[in-house]
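Make up an example, fold above all:
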Amino acid sequence: MSPFASIRELADAIRWKKVSSVELTTMFVKRLESLGKSHRAVAEMTEEHAMEQARQADNSPARTMLHGIPFGVKDLLATKGIPTRWGSPGHADQVFDYDATAVRRLYEHGGVLVAKLEMIELAGGGNYNVANASRMGPCASAWDRKRWAGGSSSGSGAATALGCVPYSLGSETSGSITCPSAFNGCTGFRPTYGRVSRHGAMALCWTMDKIGPICRSAEDCAIVLEAIAGQDSADPSTLAQRLDLRPRGRRPRIGLLKERFRENNAADCEKAYQDALDVLRKMGYETVEVAYPALPYGLAVEIIVNAEGASAHENFIRSERLTMLADVNQVAGFAASLETKATDYLWALRFRNEALKANAIWDQCDCIFTPVFYHAAVAIDKPFDQTFRNMGGDGGPANLLGWPAIAFPIGFEDGAPLGGQIIAPAYREDVCLRVARDFQFETDFHLRRPAEAKLDRWSTT
């Protein structure tokens, strides 16, 4: 069985007994031990736990699409009896006695947890500046070990792209699903704020944190998101409204922002972007130029993350363990975050009401298509303040207002993937899915694999 088979293909193989869950689990464990660890994508192997779950799956009838299929999760999601270190050297001995709701729901669907996946320490809340801001060191891109895998869901992006897991869970406060998806050529789905319970997830920013799947296609993302979404009494912020991913009505109208390709020397990205638009237009999608209101969204995000992150991790920040973090910028950033003024935080919260003006954009279009970044993954050994200068990215209101987005590969630059994203209004994940799935029906970027990952010595056949 190919490690790059889709979730539907894996489910069919298990249902028709062409492969067992134990066989699949063994294959992915081997890939994680070799490829995954060599890219520093693995935080904790869970082989014994996984084999027990796989045996149980093989001895019971398949009731869901995810039955018997292995997966990995970002190491900020609690897993009972298994270390959950938050990517932090200062939390190396942390173990919880319960499972995060998202993990539990995958278990209830018959999922098999094969690994906790590495991440940027404390999800980068202290404004990290180097790729090695992680307990295991810098996580390398699946496509090029000299490039960074992205953050903060680094291991989720790399492991999924390498075929070390069929799918994974990541989290996003401001780019932590879309970034590693773009840098590794994955498809990542950031849901509407409150769509997925955060019970059992490390808090960074209570009013912006979101959990979502990182997969190899939009179709796979839909299957996983449907399994983990839903109201949860343990997380009062979860939405009562049910997730509905069925397409509705006419094709969505796509809004296009004014992109700055030339100013950022992004010729390859410009070509990939225009080629993607050609594909969508040939399918009948209408496009229209749009613009966000010119407001300081980024400043508000920074203040809110600093204030809420300081509150969430205050005891750790005030302890001697703070200096154990790998990146001195994180140490300084978290220490400084304790000094965030209440007046600034309250301004940022009030500004959210002003930022709601951005919802007027949905009077002109149903979604927005924009590059995740103007360039492929950055060098793994260079400070970000040097390498991110011309990267671009979503500097708008999407995360601040909790809008959903799906990131997916649209082309390549120097052999490394480039990502685009569809952003939609709150509650309209169906729009994101429809456009991305249609694009992937007509293209094969999501099916292309890193050369290193194609080696067949880890296959079940």
User: Anything to note?
Assistant: Residues 7-291+357-458 form a domain with the Amidase signature (AS) enzymes fold (CATH 3.90.1300.10). The longest strand covers residues 405-413. The mean pLDDT is 97.
